[in-house]
Write a structure and sequence with these properties.
Number of strands: 0
Helix content: 25-40%
Order of helices and strands: HHH
Number of helices: 3
Largest sheet: none
Structural class: mainly alpha
Oligomer: single chain
Strand content: under 5%
Length: 56
């Protein structure tokens, strides 16, 4: 099951597609997910928040 919040530094779409099995359940065998393919080709369309700096 997917986390309710996307961790800092992660793309929300990448995170959701990687951790929510319901998204890809409707696909037929050997069928590609169009949003995933678009994401791989064009990159993440979201501004990904950076991880908090904790070196202090």
């Amino acid at each position: 099951m997917a986390a309710t919040q996307t961790p800092p530094g992660e793309c929300p779409q990448c995170w959701e597609h990687a951790h929510n099995k319901r998204i890809h359940r409707k696909l037929k065998p050997r069928e590609d997910c169009k949003p995933c393919i678009d994401h791989m080709v064009n990159g993440c369309p979201y501004i990904v928040p950076k991880k908090e700096s904790r070196w202090w």
